[in-house]
Design a protein that fits this description.
heterodimer, A: 110 residues, mainly beta, 6-stranded mixed β-sheet, 9 strands, globular, B: mainly beta
């Protein structure tokens, strides 16, 4: 059972804007940065957003992140069919002294 | 460009030891700014961080409580790699295992993943 809570699924049509939430606590998101990962079947997760809202080189600006208090969000605007994937949030937990991941959100492009 | 290349068997017998290695290119296992992690993924557990090793004037190891009594992560400076050993495995340890680098507060580089099945 993940300590970071994400909705199991999300969906949207091409061109739409979709948001995925990630809820934590004061020992993780509330005190540390959040990163987001995109994963396609059979491949390793790929860093999509780091430091709450920074896009690594090569990540389209359609992807954005935000954080407020003990929650974070990933937004995808101008949804495209190739965005269909699983998305995970992650944060360091100072109480557990380890990395925590969300349970993942499966994004479907209708 | 930092890359991680995993190796090791994809099958382990119950009660035996799971062993994997992660070879690093483009960075050093002795880096003072990175940490070297093992993370696993299964349908039942999702993504689960297992532990890490890192060097900050001396070597440190940190492990998740759930496997702390069974796990060892070791750096190998001569080969610029690090390893995972998980003892007394059960079918619940069946998962895809990833090695990964953490740097500047995020997991930024992942290995290709190794499916390890625990079965007799």
């Amino acid at each position: 059972q993940s300590v970071l809570t994400q909705p199991p699924s999300a969906s949207g049509t091409p061109g739409q804007r979709v948001t995925i939430s990630c809820s934590g606590s004061s020992s993780n998101i509330g005190r540390d940065i959040v990163s987001w990962y995109q994963q396609f079947p059979g491949t390793a997760p790929k860093l999509l957003i780091d430091s709450n809202n920074q896009r690594p080189s090569g990540v389209p600006d359609r992807f954005s992140g935000s954080k407020s208090g003990m929650s974070a969000s990933l937004a995808i605007s101008g949804l495209q069919s190739e965005d269909e994937a699983d998305y995970y949030c992650a944060s360091w937990d100072g109480s557990l002294n380890g990395w925590l991941f969300g349970g993942g959100t499966k994004l479907t492009v209708l | 460009q930092v890359q991680l290349q995993q190796s090791g068997p994809g099958l382990a017998k119950p009660s035996q030891t799971l062993s994997l290695t992660c070879a690093i290119s483009g960075d050093s296992v002795s880096s003072n700014s990175a940490a070297w992690n093992w993370i696993r993924q299964s349908p039942s557990r999702g993504l689960e961080w297992l532990g890490r090793t890192y060097y900050r004037s001396k070597w440190y190891n940190e492990y998740v409580v759930s496997v702390k009594s069974r796990i060892t992560i070791n750096p190998d400076t001569s080969k610029n790699q690090f390893s995972l050993q998980l003892k007394f495995v059960t079918p619940e340890d069946t998962a895809v295992y990833y090695c990964a680098r953490t740097h500047s507060g995020r997991v930024d580089i992942w290995g290709q993943g190794t499916l390890v099945t625990v079965s007799s």
